[in-house]
Amino acid sequence: MSTSPSPAAPAPGTTPPTAVVVDGYSAGNFYPAAFTAVGARVIHVQSTPELIPTMLAPDLTAYAENIVCSEEDRLVELLRPYSPVAVVPGQESAVQPADRLSEALGVKSNGTALSAARRDKYEMIEALRRAGVRCADQYKSDDAELLVKWAQDHGSWPVVVKPISSAASDGVFICDSAEEVRAAARHVLDTRDIFGFANAEALVQSYLRGTEYVVDTVSCDGRRFVSGVWQYDKVLLPSGQNIYNRDILLSPDEDPVPALIDYIHEVLAALDVRWGPAHAEVIVTDRGPVLVEIATRLNGQLNPGFQELCLGADQAGLTALAYTRPEEFLREYAGRVYRKLRSAYSYNPGTTLDGVVAEVDQEIVARINALPSVFLTSVKYAPGARIRPTTDLLTAAMRIYLTSADDEQLVADYETARELKDSVYRLA
Predict the structure, then answer these.
(1) Which of 3, 328, 350, 378 has the greatest CB tally within 10 Å of its CB?
(2) Are residue 65 and residue 105 in the same domain, yes or no?
(3) Where a domain ends, among 113, 148, 171?
(4) Taking the model in full, what pTM does it have?
(5) Are 306 and 326 within 8 A, CB to CB?
């Protein structure tokens, strides 16, 4: 099995295929290089007049063109002359627009029939329930008191309260009492999600007790490659928010990875995911794997070079291959799973700092980067930026990718990075 798609230039006199990325924020920034590597021209659709300030902005210089348009009927007419081979979401809020655009253009698409269930976390779980797939109990409402009543009637604590359609652990609370549910529900209903949309409803779900995992896949005409399984290491804050600490790469044959993979195939079938990437979060309970949520977009912690090193292939590159050269993808990847080439962590250090960053200590950053296992340290805050105590993935202080063939070295370097991370920022 080849480890990554080889570059392909279009034949002389032919027009290269075109891929469309809708709102290429965050990990969507890796799509231009991935599609370019398989010989495609990449254009960007910006669905808002201004870029969303809460997200890592798309690098518009990486695209052949940026189309700014929020009217989807008009977008279809603007995109039709390009005859695109793919219309992919660059972030979670673009999932449904990308489904509608790809269906209207008649290109490879997951379609719109179950598009809401691939975005709305309530509809997502209900789709699993209808398909007979193991899932959580839940209730949604725009009334905090009704959410409290459901939690009390449910009769098992804790419960989870969260927004219907956000991401990156935004607004997710673990609640042990009616008072905590009420406070969490009011917080969700009174705020906007990370994409800037008002939370019209809040969701309360049964608490899934067990270890949480990530399962990443890429689909090509309904056939899939499992591109990685990671175990979450989380930290529970006094506020009831459970924040990310580390993602730990697992071997494909170690328990419970095979059971997770089998379960995710059921989930993807229930949600009619036939094309492109998916990023699923699953908790293994005493009943077996149960979905937390799934997003039909790239893993937000993707770094292609890091994944190439520890997995042999990256999710963005595999997605580009699936859309542009489906026969090659089906031959090389369909029905298979990743290889763990080296042990790896994706570490998201939290912070208790609260203030304005005066300085980033580059000497400390250099010491972290010099650790043998460290592939990359991504510092999130520049001098002058406002830093706040970590409450979710977006407010982590930085991201450190570590990988090594020596497990003892990996653990030692992680512990050293933990000791150094609080010295990276100096406040005004």
Answers:
(1) 350
(2) yes
(3) 113
(4) 0.90
(5) no
Are 108 and 141 members of one domain? no
Cα 299 to Cα 214, 247, 249, distances in angstroms: 9, 12, 14
Instruction: Specify the residue for token string 């370097």.
Output: 413
Q: Output the six-digit token pair for 141.
A: 């409402």
Question: How many Å apart are CA 124 and CA 203, to the nearest integer?
Answer: 12
Terminal-to-terminal C-alpha distance of the chain: 53
DSSP states of 289-334: EEEEEEESS--TT--HHHHHHHHSS-HHHHHHHHHH-HHHHHHHTT
Region 177-193 average pLDDT: 90
Question: What is the tens place of the pLDDT at every residue in 55-107?
Answer: 889 999 999 999 999 999 999 999 999 999 999 999 988 999 999 999 999 99
Is residue 365 within 8 Å of residue 391, measured between CB atoms?
no
CA-closest candidate to residue 171, choices 156, 158, 185, 151? 185
**Residues 227-264, buried b or exposed e (16+ Cβ, 10 A)?**
bbbbbbeeeebeebbbbbbbbbbbebeeebbeebbebb
Q: Could you give the CA distance from residue 393 to residue 399 in angstroms, rounded to a whole number?
A: 10
**Helix, strand, coil shares, percent, the chain, to 5:** 35, 30, 40
* Angstrom distance (rounded) from CA 410 to CA 257: 21
Token pair for 113:
């029939």
Give me 351's structure tokens: 């912070």
The Cα-based distances of 97 to 66, 71, 120, 318 in angstroms read 16, 10, 13, 22
375 assigned to some structural domain: yes
In 80-195, alpha helices (H): 95-105, 121-130, 144-154, 178-189
Residue 214 lies in a domain: no
* CA angle 296–301–306, rounded 5-degree value: 120
CATH at 181: 3.30.1490.20
Question: What CATH number does residue 105 fall under?
Answer: 3.40.50.20
Return the closest-CA partner of residue 411 out of 381, 383, 374: 374
Strand order in the sheet with 398-404: 288-295, 276-285, 211-220, 223-236, 242-249, 343-347, 398-404, 374-379
Rg (CA), the chain: 21
Identity of the amino acid at 7: P
DSSP character string of 156-186: -S-EEEEESS--TTTT-EEESSHHHHHHHHH
Are 141 and 104 found together in one domain? no
Q: Which residues form the domain of 92? A: 18-113
Instruction: Kindly state the average pLDDT of the residues 279-293.
Output: 96
Counting the structural domains of the chain, the total is 3
* Measured distance CA(217)–CA(229) in Å, rounded: 9
